[in-house]
């Protein structure tokens, strides 16, 4: 019984540490100067690369109403990327509310994980199989070369091709 109490005490001491090791989603930027489509919290992209990707994604959103947002973080802090990405997209309201046509791309540097979370409005086009194919065949090969910008650029191009003609800007 004494061993049981010691184990229980140990578990109760460690459990809060495990639970607190979660990623805290930042608040959605409210200032117009901070609102964009690329949030590089890990500084993996150069300022030029970030600006290029931002311009492409903002232009795409303006002409199609489909918003693609990229978030690059240093670490998942114990979170599962497949849960964090859609939770973050929902919290920030990515995409048009009435169409739910946003896509949230989450890249975690330390864990070398990427997740593409589509809204329900584009989910019929971006199925799990197609999503995995884009990640495996187009994004990851560039990441393996150390070129995160190329991977994200090619990946977002593939998404844009996939969604072509689905939504129009308003």
Structural summary, described in words:
The protein has 170 residues and is of the alpha/beta class. It contains six helices and four strands. Helix 2 (47-64) packs parallel to helix 6 and helix 5 runs antiparallel to helix 6. The mean pLDDT is 87.
Radius of gyration over C-alpha positions, nearest whole angstrom? 18 Å
pLDDT below 50 for ≥5 consecutive residues: which ranges? none
Categorize the overall geometry: globular
Strand segment count? 4
- Largest sheet descriptor: 4 strands, mixed
**C-alpha termini separation:** 68 Å
- Secondary structure class reads alpha/beta
What is the averaged pLDDT score?
87
Strand order of the largest sheet: 1-2-3-4
The share of residues in helices is 40-55%
* Beta-strand content: 5-15%
Secondary-structure element pattern, one letter each? HEHEHEEHHH
* Total DSSP helices: 6
Strands, helices and their partners?
Elements: H1 2-20, E1 38-40, H2 47-64, E2 68-73, H3 81-92, E3 103-108, E4 113-118, H4 120-123, H5 128-144, H6 148-163
Helix pairs in contact: 2-6, 5-6
């Amino acid at each position: 019984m004494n061993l049981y109490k010691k184990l229980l005490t140990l578990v109760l001491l460690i459990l809060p540490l495990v639970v607190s090791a979660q990623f805290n989603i930042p608040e959605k930027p409210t200032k117009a100067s901070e609102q964009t489509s690329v949030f590089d919290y890990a500084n993996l992209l150069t300022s030029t690369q970030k600006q290029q990707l931002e311009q492409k994604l903002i232009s795409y959103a303006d002409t199609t109403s489909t918003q693609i947002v990229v978030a690059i973080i240093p670490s998942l802090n114990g979170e599962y990327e497949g849960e964090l990405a859609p939770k973050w997209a929902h919290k920030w309201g990515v995409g048009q509310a009435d169409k739910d046509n946003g896509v949230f791309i989450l890249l975690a540097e330390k864990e070398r994980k990427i997740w593409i979370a589509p809204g329900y409005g584009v989910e019929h086009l971006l199925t799990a199989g197609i999503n995995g194919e884009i990640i495996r065949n187009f994004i990851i090969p560039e990441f393996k070369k150390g070129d995160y910008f190329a991977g994200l650029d090619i990946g977002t191009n593939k998404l844009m091709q996939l969604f072509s003609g689905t939504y129009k800007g308003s």
